[in-house]
């Protein structure tokens, strides 16, 4: 019988066993008493966590984002995505982000900042993602893994936003990163306009 909402401060795992383990993730089957008081079975895909890189090229007119086009078997189609990958054992997020950007694109970056942190699909996947903004890009030789076939694209942010709104970009982490950057640019533009108006009044 469920108890009143909020009566438990956290979930209690009564029993858990590993039902699958692969090279990238593992799955546990948990008998859990949730904070609502509901006791239920949850199958959870466990993951070490991932990093996403919003790499921005500011060397020409207007910022451009680095996107990758690659085939995703789970989606059954080619997708446009920001560079991303899992955090390896012994790595912190920033080290993983720098490694993934270099391996997949050949780029390194002068400045790094974590801008977003979220859960990829919390209904059944325990994978947290962090997006890092990378600026001051320097090109180099990519070092992709054997199963990675990646086509790089430098896309102006206005075009990237349009691709999101038209459904051309369908990857969730990429949508989040592109719309975040667009909002930052809009906020900066509004602040600059406000500053100019104040200067004129003086």
How would you describe the overall organization of this protein?
The protein is 26% helix and 41% strand. With 202 residues, it is of the alpha+beta class. It has two domains: 12-45, no CATH class; 50-188, Nucleoside Triphosphate Pyrophosphohydrolase. The strands form two sheets. Strands 4, 5, 6, 7, 8, 10 and 11 form a seven-stranded mixed β-sheet that branches. A hairpin with a 5-residue loop joins β2 (26-33) and β3 (39-46). α2 packs across α3 (172-201). The longest helix has 30 residues, at 172-201. It is globular, with a radius of gyration of 21 Å. The model has no long low-confidence stretch (mean pLDDT 91).
Based on helices, strands and strand pairing, what is the structural class? alpha+beta
Helix content: 25-40%
Intertermini distance: 68 Å
Using DSSP, what is the number of strands? 11
Total helical segments: 3
